[in-house]
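Quick one: C-alpha cells for this chain, please?
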Amino acid sequence: MSFGQGGPSWGSGGPQEPFGSNTPDWAALADASAARNRRKKFLWIGGGALATAAIVGIVATAIVSTNSGNSRNDKAATELPAPEELPSNTAQPGPSFSSVAPPPPPDPHDFISSSKKDKAPLSAAGLYPGKKLTMGDRVYAKGPTSRTTGCSSATQGALGAVLANNGCAQVIRATYTREGVAVTVGVAVFDTEAQAEKAKEQASGGLASLSGSGVPTFCRGGAVCRKTTNSYGRYAYFTVGGFTNGKNVTKGDSAVFQAGDDLAEFTFQQIVQRGRSQASAAAGSSAG
C-alpha cells in the first residue's frame, strides 16, 4: 500500500479488516455444541443399556442358581431310601373260638337240694349269727339257740312223728324277742328235697318254743300262738310265736304276725345264701 495525494488507496479484492479481526465464528460454535449434545445423548443411551444388561445378568444368575439348587434337591429326594415293601397279603388270621359251649354256671338250688352236694358246715351260730336281727326298721334280740339230732324233742304234738317218718336228721332252733313278743324258729334238715317237701305237707302240731337266756316260757300250756310251716331245698322250717306274758294271740295282733314272717323270711334267705356260696365256690374251683 502506498500513500499519495488524495488519501489511501486499497488494492483489489474488496475491503479488508484493518489490522486483523476478533469477531467469533458463530456458525462453527453452533456446530460444535450440537456435536457435544449428540455425544452426551449417545453416552446416556449406552449407559442405560449397560445397566439393563447388568440387571438381566444378575436375574439370570439367580434363576440359574435356583434351578441348580432345585436340581440338587430333586436329586437328594430321588436318592432317599425307598419305603419298605409290605407283603401283598396283609390279612391276619382271626381269633379262633371253640365250637363247644361252656358249661352253665352251677345252680345254687342244686347244692341245698341233697346232702350229697350240700357239704358246707351247718350250725345254729351259722344260720343265726350275731346277737340281734334287723329286718327293715324292726330289731329283734336273739335269745337261746339249740341244735339236736333228736328231732321229736324239738316239737309239740304230731310234728315229731312227721319229722321222724321222713328221715329228719337234726333240728336247729333260735328264739328272738321284741317288745313283749317272742318267736322260736326251727329248721329241720333232711337228706333230700323230696323228704323236706313231704314233711311240710304232712305237718301237724308244731315246733316247741325255746326259752331261756332271759326269755320266759311262752306258747306252752294251751296258750294260743301263731305257727308257720315252709320248706326250701332239703330244709323244712317252722315258727311259733306269741306273747311272753302268756296272752293268747288273735288275728289283730300284727306284731306277732310280723315277727313270725320276719323270722321265716330271714331263715329262707340264709338257706338261699348257703346254696349261692357253695355254687360260687364250685364255679371258682372249676375255672381254676
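The mean pLDDT is 80.
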